[in-house]
Amino acid sequence: LEVLAAELSKAGPAARKLTFLGARQPGGATMTALTLARLLSRHGKVVLVDLSPCSLALRAISTDPSAPGLAELLRDQASFRQIINRDRFSQVHLVTTGAGGADRALLRTPRLNLAVDALLRVYDHVLLDASAATDLSAELLSTQAHAIVLPEPDMTAEQRAQRCAQLDAVGFAKVTMLSERPHVAEQAL
User: Fold this and answer.
1) Which of 91, 90, 94, 49 is nearest to 67 (CA)?
2) Among 147, 179, 180, 152, residue whose Cα is nearest residue 165
3) CB–CB of 158/41 below 8 Å?
4) What is the distance between the terminal CA atoms of the chain, rounded to a whole angstrom?
5) Per mean pLDDT, which range of 9-18, 40-49, 95-104, 128-137 is the poorest?
6) Mean pLDDT over the full length of the chain
7) pTM higher than the cut 0.70
8) Region 92-118 average pLDDT
């Protein structure tokens, strides 16, 4: 992940929007995204946006675990200032799904695209943790985005190549398939 972070830091605008994808492994993509976000925050402004269906990991490391999130923003119950909070262990800013995160329909509205676009104007890197979220729009996840895929441990090389080709076909600007499940313990703190 340190090598990837260095490459992304040097890539400039081509690596501003990063979409993390993973399947079946609860929290795996979130912890990988968090580790990479912490590494990237050493050289720029970074926000990690939780779009996963059931992640509580970002709330656990947040300076304000009860802060409103995307659901409240999209319902006009909170401002951008209120939904952006900090990782207790780094300079990474965090945006959670919010208290209404169980209402996945909110995350499929065009207003979410506008919110992500607004974040892209402020941050050097906007990381979207989509994990196994298959209910989000391809446009939101792929438009001008670099996909970072956390593969299943049992995926063959052929399956990995096929998955990369599928993601390329839906419009990702670049696809990076991690070669193995990274160890994401304390190395990025």
Assistant:
1) 94
2) 147
3) no
4) 13
5) 95-104
6) 86
7) yes
8) 85
Two structure tokens written together for 76: 């006009």
Residues near 170 by beta carbon (within 8 Å), at least 6 away in sequence: 138, 142
Q: Is-contact 38 8, C-beta < 8 A? A: no
Q: Specify whether the CB–CB gap between 127 and 141 falls below 8 A.
A: no
Sequence-separated (6 or more) residues with CB below 8 Å from residue 25: 132, 150, 152, 181
Give the CA-trace dihedral at 39, 45, 47, 138, to 10 degrees. -90
- Model pLDDT for residues 54-80, shown as the tens digit of each residue: 667 888 899 998 899 998 999 999 999
In whole angstroms, give the CA distance from residue 108 to residue 47: 20
Cβ neighbours around 71 below 10 Å, total: 21
Helix or strand or coil: residue 172? coil
